[in-house]
C-alpha cells in the first residue's frame, strides 16, 4: 500500500496497525515513495565486560613510578 503524507497524517493509527500485522505500508510525497512503515525490531543487548577473564590488572597499576615522575616533573625538592 502506498499512501501520501497528507492522508497518512489522518490515518496514522490504522497504518501503524496494518504495518504491525505484516502489511507493507509506504509513505509517499507527490506519489514518490519516501519511507516504509515497518514494525520495530529491538536491537540485541550489548555485551558488557567483553575482556572479562582475558585481561588482568596488576595490583600496582596506580602506583607512581619515581623515575617516570622525575622525567615529567624534574627532581623532587
Give the class from helix and strand content and strand pairing: alpha+beta
Shape: elongated
Look at the structure and give the mean pLDDT: 89
Q: Order of strands side by side in the largest beta sheet?
A: 1-2-3
Number of beta-strand segments = 3
C-alpha end-to-end distance = 80 Å
Largest sheet: 3 strands, mixed
Helix content: 25-40%
**Elements, N to C (H/E):** EHHEEH
| Strand content bin | 15-25%
Global Rg: 30 Å
By DSSP (H or I, 4+ residues per run), the number of helices equals: 3
Low-confidence stretches: none
Overview of the structural elements:
This protein is an alpha+beta fold. The chain has a domain at 2-37. Helix content is 30%, strand content 18%. The protein is built from three helices and three strands, in the order E-H-H-E-E-H. The protein has a three-stranded mixed beta sheet. The protein is elongated and about 75 Å long.
Task: For this entry, give a set of tags.
30% helix, 77 residues, three-stranded mixed beta sheet, 3 strands, alpha+beta
